[in-house]
Amino acid sequence: MHKRTWSKLIPTKISAFGWQVMQNRIPTKLNLYQRGIVHDNNLMCGLCGDDIEDKNHLFIHCRVAHSVRSKCAKWWRFLTAHPKTCQEDFEQHRLPIKDSSVQAGWDVVWFSTLWSLWLARNRKIFKNQVCEEERIFELVQLRAFSWIKSRTTGYSFNFYEWMLEPLLSLKAKRSLQ
């Protein structure tokens, strides 16, 4: 997990956030309540409002998260199982192929998804701004592309090509690691 978490393609702040998610150290409503930081009885998910907000609900079971993650899998033409935990989800993203550039790109998408969901949740809670699932997915694509483009020498694909064929754009540039 360490090598994939601290990839040069992922901004350090986002890698740290992903690590915090895996360690259950992010300020979800349930974590804040259990630590005695908030005493509000509203522990429902900030994105969907359907269940208590813990890390696994927020990033895996929430209907908004599930929709965004399904869109990512469809975009990459991958079949994925519905994991129970964030750890299972991260391990599921270890691809059964030996192309390290594709694995590195898929890891970037995983971290971009976590970050985009977190930011959408915070906008809804703190600014009362709802972000539609399709918009969150578009932000996942944009963030992942910008991280790869800015952190890879010689990556010549444009955003349109990345959106249409992410696998092809990564296979063509094998220095992503």
Protein model, in words:
InterPro entries: RVT-Znf (IPR026960), Znf_C2H2_type (IPR013087). Residues 45-66 form the C2H2-type domain. Pfam families: zf-RVT (PF13966). This is C2H2-type domain-containing protein. The protein has 177 residues and is mostly helical. The chain has one domain (11-172). The chain has 10 helices and no strands. It has helices spanning 2-5, 12-22, 29-34, 55-61, 63-76, 86-92, 100-127, 133-151, 159-164, 166-172. The model has no long low-confidence stretch (mean pLDDT 90).
Rg, alpha carbons: 16 Å
| Net shape | globular
- Compute the number of helices: 10
Helix and strand string, N-terminal first?
A: HHHHHHHHHH
Unreliable stretches: none
Which structural category do the helix and sheet elements fall into? Answer: mainly alpha
Helical proportion, percent range: 55-70%
Strand content: under 5%
Major beta-sheet overview? none
- Estimate nothing, just give the exact number of structural domains: 1
Distance between the amino and carboxyl termini: 14 Å
How many beta-strand elements? 0
Average pLDDT metric: 90
Q: Regarding quaternary structure, how should these chains be classified?
A: single chain
Organism: Rubroshorea leprosula
Domain C2H2-type: 45-66
Protein name: C2H2-type domain-containing protein
